[in-house]
Amino acid sequence: xxxxxxxxxxxxxxxxxxxxxxxxxxxxxxxxxxxxxxxxxxxxxxxxxxxxxxxxxxxxxxxxxxxxxxxxxxxxxxxxxxxxxxxxxxxxxxxxxxxxxxxxxxxxxxxxxxxxxxxxxxxxxxxxxxxxxxxxxxxxxxxxxxxxxxxxxxxxx
Length: 157
Known about the structure:
Distance between the termini: 40 Å
Number of domains: 1
Number of strands: 11
Strand order of the largest sheet: 2-1-11-5-6
Order of helices and strands: HEEHEEHEEHEEEEHE
CATH topology: Sulfite Oxidase, Chain A, domain 2
CATH class: Alpha Beta
Helix content: 10-25%
Structural class: alpha+beta
Radius of gyration: 15 Å
């Protein structure tokens, strides 16, 4: 099963790299003070991907999510664990997330759900996912409120 998932990731990355098939538009911006880093889907796929199999209030049962760890994106701007992260979605919904969560848990910026790229219609292209099944303390309403889907912007405060 792992080989099949890896094959899908490679094929998706290859197809996105072809002219006129992939989108080179920015899908995520991370800003800290006057500095910012923007990512296309292709750039996120170049980062090491982590698989998290977990349930949450918005899926039926354990679901496989795959994407780069949030802390990799934060490291690019030297974000301290004491910072607050204002996560904003495409519809301007926002939620505050302690940066420490990214360092204490394998929180990921999921771009795949059950091996398939997530469309905007299916909570994509990025869904902030916590490994809730791995840590009973995360199975709480506060953490479900941090599962921002259609994530487009992270402001480091």
